[in-house]
Amino acid sequence: MDRATFACSTAYFHDRSRASCGTACKPREHVDFIEKVESFNYSDFFRDYLIPNHPCILSSKFTEGWGSRRNWVTRDGKPNFDYLLQTFGEAVVPVANCEVKEYNANPKEQIPFKEYVSYWKEHIARNYSSPRGCLYLKDWHLYRAFPEQDVYTIPIYFSSDWLNEYWDALAVDDYRFVYMGPKGSWTPFHADVFRSYSWSANICGKKKWLLYPPEEEEYLRDRHGNLPFDITAPNLHDSSIYPRCAQSSPPVEVIQEAGEIIFIPSGWHHQVYNLEDTISINHNWVNGCNVAIMWCFLQDELAAVQREISEWRETMDDWHLQCQVIMKSCTGIDYKEFYNFLKVIAENRISALKSVLDDEALAKNSPKAAISTLGMLHSVFDLKRTVEVLTSLSANEDFKKLDLKSLSPPPEALLHHLKAAIDTALL
C-alpha cells in the first residue's frame, strides 16, 4: 500500500457512521473489465474496488501462469478428465443436486471424485441429462487436501485475506474452494459467508452471474420476509407472494469467460449459472475494508436468534450463552471467536511492524519499509480498522454478558496494545 492509498483509506474510514455497517457507495451500473496486468496495481484495486465495494472482472491474462490452466484443460478448452482423474481420482468430494431444493439450498452428498467424473462424462454423452439429476461439485477444499499441487497463485489484489489467515492459524478449516460442474449446473440466490468478499476464477468454461448490490435484495423478499431460492422463477412477479418485487431494479448481468476472475464485493447477492462445462477456483475473504460489515452481519444474526427463542429468555439462566451457541451453529462463529479472530490478525500485524522497525534500525537509512508485498502502511491500516471494530465489539452489551475472563489478553489490554503499536509505527 502506497502513501496516497493509505491517506485515501484513512479519510474514507474516518467517518465512523460510514465505516460501521454500510457497504459504501452507490454501485455502478456496469462491471469494469481490467485487461492488462502491468497497468493495474494493488493500489488501483484497493482504491477503485475494495473501498467503494464495486465488482470487477480481471482478464484471462491474470491467470496465464497457473498450473490448473495448463493441466486441467484440454486444447479445445474442455475439462481434462484424464489428468484430473490421475491426480485426484481417489479424493472424496462434496456434490450438490441442482434439481432439488432443501432448506433453501441444494442437498449435498460426499462421493469419490472418480465417481463424479464418470457421472459427468455420462451426463455429457446423454446430451446433458441424467436420471441422477444435475450434479455440481461444490465447496471442495482442494487447496487444503492437496497443498503440494501446482494449481494457482493468489493474485496480489486478494492477498489481504483475514479469513484464511485466521483459519490457517487454527489449522481446522479454510475458505478456498474448487467448483466443477456440467453445463446447466447453477448456484441459488445468496450472499457469501459472513458477507465476505469473494473472487472466482474460471479455469475453463463460462459462467453467467446475476448480481444485486447491497440492500437491493430487500425488494425480493416474500410476504414472510424470506429471500427467493431462484430469482428467475415466474412467481416473483406475483405481488401476492413478493409484494415489493416490482420496485426492484434488474440484476447486473455478467458473463465470465475462461481464465477470467470476477471480484464479488461484500453483501452483493448473486445467482450463478454454468453456461458450459466449467471448473472454477473460489475464495471467500475478509480484510480491513469489510471487517465492519462482517461484524454487523454477526450482530444481525444474533438478533435473529434472540427473536427466535425470545420466549425462553426469562426461564433459561444461560439464555445469552445459548443464543451464542445457536448463532455459531448457523454461521460458524460466535462473538468470542470473532474476538479471537481480530486478536490473531492484530498480533500478526504488530509482529510485522516490529520486524520492519528492527530491519530499519539495523540498516539505518534503508528504504525498505515493509516485510511483505503489501507494505508497512497496510499493516497500520489493518490495525486501525481492527481497533474500530474491536472498540464496537467491546462496547456491545451481548459481548459484555459473556465470560470474558477466558479471553487473553482482555479486550481493554488488547486495544491499548494496538493503539500503541499504531502510534509507534506512525512516528
Any overview of this molecule?
This protein has 427 residues and is of the alpha+beta class. The protein folds into two domains: 28-287, Sandwich (Jelly Rolls); 292-425. The chain is 38% helix and 17% strand. The strands form two sheets. The chain has a nine-stranded mixed β-sheet with strand order 1-2-11-8-13-6-5-3-4. Strands 7-12-9-10 form a four-stranded antiparallel β-sheet, with no helix packed on it. The chain starts with a helix and ends with a helix. GO terms for molecular function: 2-oxoglutarate-dependent dioxygenase activity; catalytic activity, acting on a protein; metal ion binding; sequence-specific DNA binding. Residues 143-302 form the JmjC domain. Its cofactor is Fe(2+). It catalyses: L-lysyl-[protein] + 2-oxoglutarate + O2 = 4-hydroxy-L-lysyl-[protein] + succinate + CO2.
Elements, N to C (H/E): HHEHEHHEEHEHHEEEEEEEEHHHHHH
Task: Characterize the overall form.
Answer: globular
What is the CATH class of the largest domain?
Answer: Mainly Beta
Helix amount: 25-40%
Q: Could you give a quick summary of the protein structure above?
A:
The protein is an alpha+beta fold and 427 residues long. It contains 14 helices and 13 strands.
